[in-house]
Amino acid sequence: MLVDSHCHLDKLDLTPYGGSLDQALKAAEEKGVKCILCVCVDIHHAADVLSIAKRYPFIFASFGIHPSEPMEREWEVNEIVAQAQAKEIVAIGETGLDYYHSNGAEDAQRERFRRHIRAARELNKPLIIHTRQAQEDTLAIMKEERAQEVGGVMHCFTETSEMALRAIDLGFYISFSGIITFKNAQALRDVVVDVPLDRLLIETDAPYLAPMPYRGKPNEPQYVYYVAQEVARLKQCSLESIAEQTTQNFFQLFKGAVLPNFC
Ligand SMILES: [Zn+2]
Ligand SMILES: [Zn+2]
To answer: Which of 40, 73, 128, 222 is the most buried (most CB within 10 A)?
Structure first.
């Protein structure tokens, strides 16, 4: 069994499936993908994300506002907490810092990130952290706001081994996407080798970042298979053992994600 630990099901291109999410999920299931975390990035789609998770017992949701998402005003901690109550919401995020897409709003990003961490601690739900070109600030805020009390994942990780290991020291997991299959991503493949298997997750981040051999096409949950395959190659393990370990890691981290008949 495989888990897609991070994707945006409300944004999938369903054209190949005649517009049917059911069919896209069936295709994923046929590739062994039996659990999916559907991640929220903005308040306008939060209800869609939650309603997908309510419809399928093997799909879970998050609530969060992406660091690069424009907002008329920042949300208070209690507003985030109020939005993230449902039992299907097993994590807070995407949150974090993205200085590559900051439009000069780095102060606002930092404040928003702090509020998400405070909300996560209040809710006792783990964090889904997006970080790009903001290594030191991300780690500093995680420490200052005591993110380690709830833990979480550094999703779609593209930074250095040093940062990965420092996040792991704070009790976080590192999640790799299809980027690790890209020809020009050797530095990131070296990071995969350095991350201990008991701290590693896999994701698609669909509909973005389709792995090889689908690079450039819309991504979908079934392609997490190719991420697992590449991790297996890099770790010199079987695909089955990577599937098993990353699945175990997922349920270890996202305690609210409980599958019917899963033990
Ligand atoms: Zn992200
Ligand atoms: Zn994402």
So the answer is: 128
Residue 107 belongs to domain spanning: 2-253
Measured in Å, residue 68 CA sits from the centre of ligand 1 at: 9
- On the question of pLDDT at 115 being above 70, the answer is yes
CATH number of domain containing 35: 3.20.20.140
95 contacts 127 by C-beta, under 8 angstroms? yes
In a domain, 213, yes or no: yes
Both structure tokens of 56: 């399928």
Ligand number, closest to the Cα atom of 154: 1
Nearest to 1 by CA among 261, 192, 254, 242: 242
The answer to whether residue 44 sits within a structural domain is yes
pLDDT in tens, 135-172: 999 999 999 999 999 999 999 999 999 999 999 999 99
> For residue 159, is it within any domain?
yes
* Cis upstream peptide for 220 (omega within 30°): no
Q: Which residues 6+ apart lie within 8 Å of 67 measured at CB? A: 94, 95, 96, 97, 98, 101, 102, 109, 112, 113, 130
Cβ(131)–Cβ(67) under 8 Å?
A: no
Q: How far is the CA of 207 from the centre of ligand 2 (A)?
A: 9
Instruction: Tell me how far the alpha carbon of residue 140 lies from the centroid of ligand 2, in angstroms.
Output: 22
Q: How far apart are CA 14 and CA 94, in angstroms?
A: 23
Number of domains in the chain: 1
Ligand 1 centre to CA of 261 (Å) is 31
Q: What is the pTM of this model?
A: 0.97
262 domain residue, yes or no: no
> Among candidates 81, 88, 95, 86, which has minimal Cα distance to 41?
95
Residues with CB under 5 A from ligand 1 (ion): 94, 130
